[in-house]
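Recap from last week: sequence in, structure out.
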Amino acid sequence: MAEIAEGGGGGHGKGGKKRAKKQSTRVDMTPMVDLAFLLLTFFVLTSTFNKPKSMEITFPVPPEKIEDQPPVKNGITVILTKDHRIFYYKGQFNAVGNPDGKEPTQLSETTFSSEGLHKILMENNEYANKEITGLKAKVKSKEMADTTFKRLAMNAKGDKLSLTVLLKTDDKATYKDVIDVVDEMNICMVGKYVIVDMSAPEFGLLTEKTK
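Predicted structure tokens:
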């Protein structure tokens, strides 16, 4: 808001001439300051701050001995090591000369490509993927609410028919590889996965493979 302040003057000068009155302009900055604070408050209240990103990983209660881990049904064990190499085997691990006389477990190697780990997880987690695909179709056609979809999708991932993945690493694997495997499991709708330690027979088999 501006004001015009009139100064002195108007008297008679020499020769009887009147002098013009002096005028000065004063700008009131108060409304502008108020507007600035209102804008600042508006942007602070409407801005979205960066939220910390976290990844949920399930860690089971460690057994007294690594060899005492319970058997895994419909499971795959993924083992990471140096040079971004990935090994895996299906089902329970059977060491050489096991008391049950079962065929010893052999490690298979794969990669991070679409024809590697991704394909293996998708093929072995067919039940959960099929169920969740059907649920998504119902949400798209507005036959199901989002909250119901999330609940049923979680149930499908946790079903006994869905895949369970045990992720194991040696001291030469990288954090990046671990995160990449977890990301791949999330993409493939794997809801049951844990990170556990390798047993001595598994480590020995891995050492033979990476010589």
